[in-house]
Amino acid sequence: MPPLDGFTPWPGETAARYRADGYWDGRTLGGLLRDSARRAPGRTALVEGERRWTYAQLDATADRIASGLRAHGIAAGDRVLVHLPNVAEFAALLLGCFRAGVLPVLALPAHRESELTHLARLSGSVAYVLAGDDAGQEGARLAEAVTAAAPTVRHVFATGTADGPWKPFGLLLAEERGEFADAASPGEPAVLLLSGGTTGPPKLIARTHDDYGYNLRASAAVTGTTEDSVSLVALPAAHNFALACPGMLSTLWAGGTVVLAPGPDPETAFPLIAREGVTSVALVPPLVLAWLDAAELLAPDLGSLRLLQAGGSRLKEEAARRVRPVLGCALQQVYGMAEGLLNFTRLDDPEDLVATTQGRPLAEADEIRVVGPDGTPVPEGGTGELWVRGPYTPRGYFRAEDHNRAVFTPDGFLRTGDLVRRLPTGHLVVEGRVKEVINRGGDKVPVEEVENHLLAHPGVHDAAIVGFPDATMGERSCAFVVAHDPASPPARRDLVAHLTALGVAAFKLPDRVRVVAAFPRTGLGKVDKAALARSLAEEGAAR
Fold this sequence. Notes:
- Residues 34-398 form the AMP-dependent synthetase/ligase domain.
- The chain has 19 helices and 25 strands.
- By secondary structure, it is an alpha/beta fold.
- Among the domains are: 30-41 and 51-183, Rossmann fold (3-Layer(aba) Sandwich); 437-542, ANL, C-terminal domain (GMP Synthetase, Chain A, domain 3), CATH 3.30.300.30.
- Strands 2-1-11-10-12-13-14-15-16 form a nine-stranded mixed β-sheet, with helices on both faces. The protein has a five-stranded parallel β-sheet with strand order 4-3-5-6-7, with helices on both faces.
- Helix 2 (30-39) packs antiparallel against helix 3 and helix 2 (30-39) packs parallel to helix 10.
- It starts with 11 loop residues before the first helix and ends with a helix.
């Protein structure tokens, strides 16, 4: 198979070193389930509602999907846009794609027309898979929008039984023909993940079988994930945190059981923990707070739970110290990114480190720099931008040459845009962001993208979005708007309706809207967003 256009490989000498040092083991992700199925075919691999799949059943289904992809003319190297909630078909489809050498492009369930059409075009996807029953008429609209915007999309498949402009997912399940011969190569891309920290439309990250395999194996080791583990996937499984840190894939590699939750709220998750004997779960900080408050109120049966991972944004120390006494389990803070680098507090770390830091790098080969605006190292213990390279941090975004030149150094370090402070122990404390991204409860709101959408509204002359602190979500967003006609400025409901009609995901909609006559400017003539943020703080203090 020819190299994938738009993929940036590691330099040859660097790749050889990672292989020699054992970080890359030369296996493909399609085999991760195969090994577990051979060890324990009758063990429960996957639970979703009342559906329970053994390893043997999931393994056979993955083979059938790999054959079904091939029967529909979807070949190794092709891309498939996957837009599914936490259902068993998501897991089976991913594993089938891995075996067929087909790259799943993982959209989030919250994504709508704006994001989906962009991802389909950027990736050159040849198929789109969505949840027909869950989406209803909205699903039909999205299917038509994606196929109209991306002429490469030849097939649309939907799970469920609802009728629409798609083929039933069952058509991907070819007749059983035994084991599908793995069509992938370890050094080739296996999956296209969504970047959570970009400043424009979503960017894609090509993760190879080699580097993502290390990612999930090492994540299993640092979390103690084994065949006895029962992992609750409460966040969207398409998110890197819930997919392989350790998440769904690491648990399947280890031979444990994955329980897919339809939602992360306590009312949904607590009964699943009690019923299935869940041992671990990953949450973003707002959900940690919701679980803590609900547990104090409801006193649920969480006796099986051993580990709660918190990531996606910084968990406040006060909340971190409540986890063990309230939920009865250990806390592990995780700071990571789909671009590669993962940091974990260790299971034997002192309580103070777990409560006040976001962990230390996963691999000894992770190379860390903490630098000032000029790119030189900051003094020990000082705050600076995090730069990183390593065996699971790719060397470029997919089909983004201009962006890659801006965010990767000539020697291959990724400028993460995160401001961190490094302790003598190697643990990192996340202090904020360099980039204009609002971290809304773990969902990253790309400011520039939403501003551009607002500027398309006929009533908006100019727009600027800033974040403001929020006790529940960490940050929320406020859109400052200069109206074309000051006498009849657009209301928030008008702007929300406009963004929704454009297919913008709900988490990107501004929580507040403020209409102003003009924006404050810096000495260089740029919008002074710090002044706008101060005005919000003063407004809050006056209440």
